[in-house]
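Dear colleague,

Thank you for sharing your sequence with our group. We've completed the structure prediction you requested, and as agreed, I am returning the results in plain text so they can be pasted directly into your records. Please verify that the sequence below matches your submission; if there's any discrepancy, let me know and we will rerun it promptly.
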Amino acid sequence: MSPVPRLRRERGLALILVLGLVIFLTLVALSLSDTLRLGNAIVSNAVSAIRAQAAADGAVHRMLVELQRPREPVNPDNPAWRPNGKRYAWVEVDLAIEVSAQSEAANIDLNFAAEPLLRQLFVSAGASEDEANAIVAAIRDWTDADSLTRPNGAESDEYRAQGRKTLPANELFVAVEELKNVLGITPELYAAVAPKLTVHSRSAGVDPLVASLDVLLCVPGLDPGQVSAWVAERDAAIDADLPPPPLPFSSPYLSGGGAGAVRIKATATAADGTRAVREASVRLGSARRVAPQFQLWQRAARSAGQPLNPAPEAGSRE
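Please find the predicted structure tokens below.
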């Protein structure tokens, strides 16, 4: 065979091998490029989430400073921040920040609330009078230090008889979620009452100056129409930074909660849509130079691309 055709065949084979190698290296390069882009995106999202969370954490601490800062009684140019649910918003660089504080006395304390107030809470959520009485007795049996069963109540024997593995702690609730373990509490009943409960106010009643309409309607003996009208006036006054209207009703289950313990919620939203939320329950120092005591510190985050609720304007209420 002539060496010329053989040489041509070898050159053709070499060309095919070279083209194959070029294609292989191109695919490897594209794969590496995609990997790098993905890595950069992951790092960018992580940095955005960290920045947003740090901003939300900082907003909590700013709220604490504002709540304890001395101010003139009336100063329209620099109104005092108050634990009444009003939301305050500002922008730092590309982060939209919003924070609010609500006195824990706005809700009913699961540990310290008067029994008639607790009972009405469960009745308003759909329990019968007998069911509500039994639930309140079971709650008190859960938190008292003894093992004696109250009338209609429940101690360890009653829980074992129903096959329950979680028994009464015989101490105060440390979280509202513990209520799920109490006899008589159904998932539906818990879902209805949980938003109105706290374990941090240490108050036998609720503070009408900050409590929601739903909570005030659980106070025994109050006229719903009168309460609804007054709450509308109160909320309008809060939004306008004005003193609340005089209270037209009274009850032994209303209390002046003050700002002893507050629930603070802060949200920071980045330009790419990443949002971080920090929620804290803090007991403020009763004297100067007494550090606030954190009773709750939890967070939730929403990543870029997920739908966000429209941000309320500064000064709006939750």
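Summary note from our side: The domain at 108-200 is CATH 1.10.40.60 (Ribonucleotide Reductase Protein R1; domain 1).

Kind regards,
the structure core
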